[in-house]
Specification:
This protein is of the alpha+beta class. The protein contains five helices and six strands. One of its GO terms (cellular component) is side of membrane.
Length: 180
């Protein structure tokens, strides 16, 4: 004896349309914050992990790297010592602008007194030094007197972030794809 129960047929089409409209509205509302042109890649904030002391920070760190990309890419991800307050960048390059060595590290105030560019007539090389204050602020290289400076900026720390808004277009696509 078989027990066959009729299964009621539910129309899923109106529910799918309502879901699709909602997802499209979310996508449109979040559109302004979803594009890469609106992301400030220089305002890098590391994951929240325990800091070793109050107001601690990190700098890009490398010793005698050949170029800025590799220096930043392979920089150690560790907290600066407590006796440092700034990030120092020392850039050596030829008269044609080719980098010969890049050193980035955590620095004390005394190490940042000699910022600027100095040309060596003997070796035809230029050394530019810059210091900055803030979490991994030493992204760029100093190349002239305009950017070889001692930059002190007090970063504004906020508890909120716009990061969840960036995931809305991805979430919308996940819900929309099965409906297409």
């Amino acid at each position: 004896m078989s027990l066959d129960f009729p299964i009621p047929k539910v129309r899923m089409l109106p529910l799918c349309h309502a879901l699709a409209i909602t997802v499209v509205q979310i996508f449109i509302l979040s559109e302004n914050q979803a594009f890469a042109k609106n992301i400030n890649f220089y305002n890098v904030r590391p994951l929240l992990d325990p800091t070793p002391f109050p107001n601690s920070f990190k700098c890009f760190t490398c010793e005698n790297a050949g170029d800025n990309y590799n220096c930043n890419r392979w920089a150690e991800d560790k907290w600066c010592p407590q006796n440092t307050q700034y990030c120092l960048t020392v850039h050596h390059f030829t008269s044609r602008g080719r980098s010969t060595s890049i050193t980035k590290k955590c620095a004390s105030r005394s190490e940042c007194h000699f910022v600027g560019c100095h040309h060596s007539r003997d070796s035809e090389h230029t050394e530019c030094r810059s210091c900055c204050e803030g979490m991994i602020c030493n992204v760029e290289l100093p190349t002239n007197h305009t950017n070889a400076v001692f930059a002190i900026m007090h970063a504004q720390r906020t508890s909120g972030s716009a990061a969840p808004m960036l995931y809305l277009p991805v979430l919308a696509w996940v819900f929309m794809f099965p409906l297409i």
